[in-house]
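Request from the bench team (R.T.):
"We need a structural guess for the complex before ordering more 2-acetamido-2-deoxy-beta-D-glucopyranose. Sequence and SMILES attached. Just send the tokens back."

Command: build protein-2-acetamido-2-deoxy-beta-D-glucopyranose structure.
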Amino acid sequence: MDMITPILLIFLVPLPSCIFSLDTIAPNQPLRDGDVLVSSKKIFALGFFSSGNSQKRYVGVWYNKVPEQTIVWVANRDNPVTDTSGLLVINSHGGLVIYGKNQSSPLWSANVTVSSPNNSTAKLLDTGNLVLLENGSLSPLWQGFDYPSNTMLPFMKLGLDRRSKLNRFLTSWKSKDDPGTGTCSYGIDPSGFPQLFVYKGQAPRWRGRAWIKERWSGVPEMTNNFIFNVTFVNNQDEISIVFTITDESIFSRLVLDESGIVERSTWYNQVHQWVKFWSAPEERCDEYGRCGANSNCDPYNVDKFECTCLPGFEPKLLHEWYLRDGSGGCVSTKRASLCRNGEGFVKVPRVKPPDSSAARVNLSMGLEACKAECLRNCSCMAYSSADERKGGIGCVTWHGDLVDMRTYSNLGQDLYVRVNATILAQYAMKSNGSLGHKEKLAASLASGLVFFLLFCIVFWLAKRKRKGKRRQDKLSFSLTRGSTYLEDSPVRTDLGESRINSDLPIFELRTIAAATNNFSSNNKLGKGGFGSVYKGVLYNGKEIAVKRLAKNSGQGIEEFKNEVVLIAKLQHRNLVRILGCCVQDEEKMLIYEYLPNKSLDSFIFNEAKRAFLDWPKRFEIIYGIARGILYLHHDSRLRIIHRDLKASNVLLDSAMNPKISDFGMARIFGAEQIEANTNRVVGTYGYMSPEYAMQGLFSVKSDVYSFGVLLLEIVSGRKNTRYYHDNPDSNLVGHVWHLWKEGRASEIIDSTLGESYPVDEVVRCIQIALLCVQEHATNRPTMSGVVSMLGNNAAAPSPRQPGFLVKRSYHTSGDPSASTEGAYSVNDVTCTEIEAR
Ligand SMILES: *[C@@H]1O[C@H](CO)[C@@H](O)[C@H](O)[C@H]1NC(C)=O
Ligand SMILES: *[C@@H]1O[C@H](CO)[C@@H](O)[C@H](O)[C@H]1NC(C)=O
Ligand SMILES: *[C@@H]1O[C@H](CO)[C@@H](O)[C@H](O)[C@H]1NC(C)=O
Ligand SMILES: *[C@@H]1O[C@H](CO)[C@@H](O)[C@H](O)[C@H]1NC(C)=O
Ligand SMILES: *[C@@H]1O[C@H](CO)[C@@H](O)[C@H](O)[C@H]1NC(C)=O
Ligand SMILES: *[C@@H]1O[C@H](CO)[C@@H](O)[C@H](O)[C@H]1NC(C)=O
Ligand SMILES: *[C@@H]1O[C@H](CO)[C@@H](O)[C@H](O)[C@H]1NC(C)=O
Ligand SMILES: *[C@@H]1O[C@H](CO)[C@@H](O)[C@H](O)[C@H]1NC(C)=O
Ligand SMILES: *[C@@H]1O[C@H](CO)[C@@H](O)[C@H](O)[C@H]1NC(C)=O
Ligand SMILES: *[C@@H]1O[C@H](CO)[C@@H](O)[C@H](O)[C@H]1NC(C)=O
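Reply to R.T.: structure attached below.
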């Protein structure tokens, strides 16, 4: 019974729409506002509509079966009917026109010349295409698909018809309420090695990659698969792209929105909504020419500034560059050395190759021939294979600026950039020696942590050799013994012999998984470039912080055995302590002591929490940080420069003792910095010494500078980067200096300290801080000087001009961790800036 009833219903109840709906407009049957034309399989509908809050009426096509009216095509988008008097008719000349009230001047018309005027019809097809047919012929005289709006539908062709010069591209709506022709467009640029572009006005906003065989190279979403079939044609007749869908019950569309974002989405009936499948541009590096010419946008850069000059190039506008504005791009000063002067090519891996609209392509050339071809022609700046698959097919050469590149984590192809002999030698040395690996490591965002890991791995191997006397999850251990070992012997460079006398324990994965609730999100403390940090509790109740390295961050670490030993030996009460590690399968983790009070910045920049820190406590914190840095600079025998000292890198234990964290990456990136001798400045703006921010020069004195800033922040409870009304060009350093010169330094002291502090002592601290931030590094005290000045009342000299950080407005899109203001110091400019007050 249950089965029979519905079947009977189907047979007995005729569907009304079958009888009444029409898909065709004949000469004597105008479509009035309110009538709806429905395609034969009821997929699309055509009629008058209004959008959003607007009362204006447009003729459009929408999905008949999608409840929320989704317009895919609009006829009179720039000439709406102002009331409901609109008519869509085949006029006396056989053309298709829309009239409002005035029937002598059409608001819109399809541009056709009809030979037998009284016998043409307009028909809505099941593809959503409105076609004008003559004598019932199947090939249309005119079709709506040749004049797309903001939506690309399956079977719709975009591109240029080289014979008729008809160019089909999407144009955005003006707004959600107004389907009028907006400023953004999306289509094929037929020049060079053709690519898809989104333009905003005349300016490119996004660029797709060139079409290779059956796909857009490097865009997996656009590859043919079981649903999509994309066809690209480039011959003397046309250049075009069509995508088809094998299952017509799937509604898929590509929409260009008002802001210039293209998005492909699919209708899911189950959830009754359009589900996004792909969109572009999605991140900053997708924006066309984000980093200017000859520069690469790498969203995975450690210091969160994504622009890097290509090998052999330097920032064109150095100041802008340090303000994290890469749009000026990069230049190469010695072009002459690039022509028959022993030059060669440096590989830039995994990139979206530069804009190829002016590139030369030869699909029958291999990569070796391509290299030779590029080398032969002095105007050739770079080459790559056209198709990176199967070891590289075809040859693309670029002559001129290389624009709009970005790095992908796993897609992309290798680009070979022409460099002069000097730079070629530098790169060859790096890739042969360990230096290059260092750079790779830095680029892969692995922090200093990985060095501990290697230490762990080797130690673990050693342990296995020794047939494991100790249980692996043993918790009591000491690094001190290891340090003693180091004190007794010269720094070892070969860890492979596993003569490490350290008790750094190895934890089992299941122990850590249990401790962190299987890495549950509730246990997550934070996330960094290296991976995530979790809080955990071991079975014995001990609290730990687990840094779980991202799976891809561990490559090429063997070469760093040396550093592993060195850093593992760091042991000081004011440095965060490592408890052990875990290396199992794909997982690499470091286990640290857990510090319940989080970081110093969560206290000093929080009005309520700051009150917990009275002056004696603050002084203890200042003194502890100073001793921690002193240890790094001098006492550890290693001379480690932290390079990123700031309030958020100082953690507080339960007794509010300060512990410096992330000290590992400092020196390693320091090494890379020297070798690269370039523009990658790591650190945090606001804490950077002028010579470091400007010239990339760093020394122990740049840490002293950062410490000075930190000290002022602790005393005042204010961020260095805060805005000061009375001196809008200034930051905290400048503000304090201003007050100091007028003998009003005590005004900066945090008011939550109340009255309970010795003014002299605090002012002395301000004086020491000002000594630390002096403009010339040579004038700044060393950390041992700072510690002794803090520790006794020896007379401190008068501070001179601080390294003054001029503030500039700076716009960053989307990266909240980037400083919202850039700061730079220009030695020559400094005086004028200050006197200008
Ligand atoms: C209708 O349009 C024609 C042509 O533009 C114009 O001459 C005429 O005045 C219009 N009629 C009305 C009533 O607006
Ligand atoms: C008709 O042709 C004109 C000029 O060639 C063009 O501006 C207009 O967009 C065309 N309209 C349609 C609907 O094809
Ligand atoms: C169509 O027009 C032709 C003349 O151009 C005329 O002979 C014929 O009768 C017309 N047919 C109809 C159906 O109106
Ligand atoms: C009009 O088109 C029909 C086919 O739809 C055809 O049979 C008829 O002969 C045509 N009439 C004229 C006058 O062209
Ligand atoms: C339609 O029919 C008319 C008259 O028979 C003829 O002149 C015209 O060429 C035909 N058009 C097409 C597109 O077949
Ligand atoms: C894809 O489309 C092209 C042209 O429409 C057709 O020749 C080809 O057979 C299609 N491929 C598949 C897998 O449907
Ligand atoms: C190569 O270029 C670098 C940087 O532009 C430059 O310092 C060096 O002198 C050049 N080498 C030669 C041989 O011209
Ligand atoms: C492409 O390369 C092949 C092989 O090197 C060569 O024979 C051919 O002439 C080149 N074609 C063009 C258009 O340069
Ligand atoms: C080098 O390439 C440029 C750009 O394609 C071309 O105009 C020029 O003729 C080439 N020069 C030589 C010597 O092949
Ligand atoms: C780097 O190694 C390659 C191959 O191992 C060798 O051909 C090249 O000469 C080496 N370069 C330097 C600068 O050592």
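Two things stood out. The first strand starts at residue 24 and ends at 25. The chain has a mean pLDDT of 76.
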